[in-house]
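README: folding subset

This subset contains proteins for which both the sequence and a predicted structure token string are available. Records are stored as plain text. Below is the entry for Reverse transcriptase (136 residues), shown exactly as it appears on disk.
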Amino acid sequence: MRRKRKPLTFRLTQVLTGHGCFGDYLCRTAQREPTTECHDCGAAVDSAQHTLEVCPRWAVLRQGLTSVLGGDLSLPSIITAMLGDDESWKAMVSFCETVMSQKEADERRREEAADVASIRGRRMGVRRRRYLMRLQ
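--- output ---
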């Protein structure tokens, strides 16, 4: 608690909260995916914890992370390590930035696919819909 505060990045926050391009979040909360399945490995549930600990797509990046943080990638262990020293903080931020930017790019590609299901299309907010209706 006495350490200098480091900024929470957008992508780090996504991983810590589980609110991001994860199948579980996109299906249950955002309702933009038909299933909670991982697009990378086919696991039944794609969550932040799945991405951190299990998904084979991120194995190389995970090795770099575990070399700094240690083998336990549970949320309490990650937080403890991040607050413990700057190297751990930077390793976690780097992992999150790399992984989440790639997951976001993959999500955009799926949304732009010509044969995209209606559930996958981007939803418009109320303001955007009203603006477009005014233009007509």
